[in-house]
Amino acid sequence: MSNKVVTHWKGNLQFESDNPSGKLFTMDTSQEHGGHDSGLRPKAMMLSSLAGCSGLDVVSILKKMKVPFSDFRIDTYGELTDEHPKYYHTVSMEYHFYGENLDEVKIKKAVDLSVDKYCGVMEMFRRFAEVKTAIHYHNV
């Protein structure tokens, strides 16, 4: 299966890109690097893509397992190399689950399935970075 996106220069250092869903988004860089800070940063979007891919898996699996939770977020941190071309050499993902009487065993299973089996973006990241994960349970 192939995906195609079209990325169009909009002037200065700003680009607009589409998505197979038809949605558009803007990319730019900081003012200190010559941009207008008017869009998303490409490297940070990679971290968002990683978290989004895994998050979609986890929610889908927990729904099938009928595991309730009231809130869920993933904090993702990327450490860049010092030399150009700068890329993420280490990525840490913290899965935070909120709810009453969280089923920690099933939640861990869902996260593990995403991390080890289903998330294609995770597999891509593993080709160039060490990926660390942790789960935090917030019983409220």
UniProtKB/TrEMBL annotation:
* UniProt cross-references to Pfam families, sorted A to Z: OsmC (PF02566)
Q: Which InterPro entries did the record assign?
A: KH_dom-like_a/b, OsmC/Ohr_fam, OsmC/Ohrsf
Q: Which domain of life is it from?
A: Bacteria
PANTHER family, A to Z:
PROTEIN YHFA
Q: What is this protein called?
A: OsmC family protein
Instruction: Give the organism the record lists.
Output: Psychroserpens ponticola
- State the organism's lineage: Bacteria, Pseudomonadati, Bacteroidota, Flavobacteriia, Flavobacteriales
